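Quick entry between incubations.
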Amino acid sequence: MNKTGFMKLAATALAALAIGASAVNAADDLNDPYRGPALEALKGKTIAYLPISIGFDLAQAWGGVVKTESERYGMTFTSQDPNWNTDAMAQGMTALIAEHPDVIVTQNPDMQSLARLMKQATAAGIVVVQLNMQGAVQTDAFVGPDFIAMGEQAANMMLEKCGAGTDTSHKVAIVQGVLTGGVSYYQVQGMMKVFNEHPEIQIVSSQAADWDASKARAITETALQQHPDMCGIIDVWDGQGIGTGAAIKQAGKQGEVYFITSGGGAQSMCNGLEDGTYSAAINYNAPGMGRDAWTAIMMALQNGQGAGAIKTQIYSPTRVMTKADVQAGTCWDPEQYAKILR
Amino acid sequence: MDFSKAFRLLNQERIVFLLTVVLFVTFSLTLSNFLAAGNLLSLVRSVAVLGILGLGMLIVVLGRGIDLSLVATMAISVAWAMQLVSEGMPVYAAMTTGLLFALCISLVTGILVAYAEIPPLFSTLAMATFIYGFGRAHMITGTDVVYMPKNMGWIAELGQGHFLGLPMPILVAAVMALLVFLFLKYTKLGAFIYAIGDNLPASRIGGIPVRPMLALQYVISGGIAFVAGIITATSVEAMNTRVVNSNMIYDVILVVVLGGVGLSGGRGNVRNVIVGTLLIGVLMNGMTIMDVQYTIQNVIKSLILLLAIVVDSIVNPRDEQTGQQGDI
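Done. Structure below.
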């Protein structure tokens, strides 16, 4: 912004402030009686953020949103980065229970690793919000997509392109993440539920790529080699799907093979849709999940019932996107949230 | 027929080569399309990066070292270079910066090994953690996956292009293999590396500049890691720095050891790495076609390695020399 622009803005702000101040004076006795107790319930509380890693786009968006909001209301926000190490994460959780923050926001690496610790935390009176993947225990809130429904949705989208009514080979490949990870496991479970009811669909390959784009590329290259008439491919995560998409492109089959993936809607998703790497993507909007997590925190701290008294599953809304939906600003920039967390 | 004499001829390289041939024939007979030209190309292509990294590892292992920081150097240097391009640095300048980073950081590793005399196992393990940690904290500050910028030009072709019908990664791997082969076989430096790996005190007495040579090995392997990284990143249009946490470095050691390169130094050549890499390639490709799950693939891979090592220790029992030096 240039200097005159800034001066103009400052002048406008000053004028607005003056008008605002006089308005407040005029309405002195019209106070919001509910605001005070709400702010009181939040103020001075501590939130500890412990995802499996702070290095990836989803965790950056969730943490970024929660941190911004918590600081707005005078809360303390701390974060830890176990860097994909489940043991380090369990240790971090144990240390947190001893430190006793008011809220722990976490993300399960799998069903079991943190279950017992989360139970302990709840028993100690700490509000626990689980992101993206539900552990084996229910706490104050779970925030994340309903992955089984999302798998079904992807499968149904695939049926439209490769199902009985279409003049195709009906051959479909699935690229999984890691076998034991819920994000991958539940999506595949949902897909198979749909595909099992449609015997015309032939699942020619269903392998785990370990969340690694290089492995996804190699698996897909071989699968396309074996089945040159492949109709469609589903990858359970767009970060890994970039490798799957590269294999499709390098086999010269972009546009022929329908490729569905899903992810949190970072800029890389929009770029992938735009250049044809992904045919369609199910976007579960990670900053939206951050907002849901923040909502869950506000509710848990304000309802006064204590940690773990009210348990809610907050399933994230999803949106199917294709190239046609991509415009400037449709996706978000992970760098912006990474900066907030640093 | 002198059976025991034929048995003696078997060394690990030949065992692994035989194993590869057996697997190859089995897959050709049982899997449709395995022998298709396209599949064979994708077979070799999928292990090209592994092979290139294996070459870097070979050079270090020949000098009785080991480089556990290869994958970290590869991921961080290339991811950083691509991030610099996204931030507006000209492509060539950014690539040169990335390469220089890889060379400098591996020079530090080399100095730790050669001059501070920290055992390579520990110094490279520590450096791997340092490179990754420093890189994630101060260089790649956004997401741990760095996407390839659109303006990479011909460099993108290194991972995606074809030359005379051959995918470029295969070609790059072949050229690298040839260069390393020529270096080891026909240059004085190559001969020095063998000599140092074979007998370090004797090489020193013989007038070989042992310490600079040790440091040089790590610098070369760092440079090779950068090339492998460029191929990885341009193939999938992204560099995932998380690969440092994976078991990729063990796969690299696997192809080197499997091919018959002696971890006690001085024994092995490029052919060993190629044989080891091909076995892994045939194995992975066959299992992918058979739709074997990745976790089970790992089990089978490790069983094959164990088998090769067991057979090797039976046909080539430890002699006095290995007994004295000990294995790594």
